[in-house]
Amino acid sequence: MYSNRSCRTIRAFLRSMEQRNEGQIVAISSIAGFCGETNGIAYCSTKFAIRGVMQCLQMEMKDKGLNGIRCTTVCPYFTRTPMILNLGMRPTSM
């Protein structure tokens, strides 16, 4: 669901970036986008999808000769949020 929102947001800005061959698209994924975890089907699969979208987009820009458009995926490690604390992780391990 969130990966679809990311795609729609990117699409809204991409055309003008392509016309100028300039811009940077930044997407937030997670370390969970690299490996699955117990009870993480929805979260991890979304983060995997965001990484995939950005990788494909970068390849498409390169194939079109649009080297002025950068695609960046930020993958933070665990941060102290209610979601992580509810998983039972200790703050000292973050």
TrEMBL record:
Listed name of the protein: SDR family NAD(P)-dependent oxidoreductase
Origin organism lineage: Eukaryota, Metazoa, Ecdysozoa, Nematoda, Chromadorea
Record-linked InterPro entries: NAD(P)-bd_dom_sf (IPR036291), Sc_DH/Rdtase_CS (IPR020904), SDR_fam (IPR002347)
A GO term for molecular function: oxidoreductase activity, acting on the CH-OH group of donors, NAD or NADP as acceptor
UniProt keyword terms in alphabetical order: Oxidoreductase
Gene3D superfamilies xref list: NAD(P)-binding Rossmann-like Domain (3.40.50.720)
Superkingdom, natural source: Eukaryota
Keyword Glycoprotein: no
GO cellular component: lipid droplet
Family affiliation: Belongs to the short-chain dehydrogenases/reductases (SDR) family.
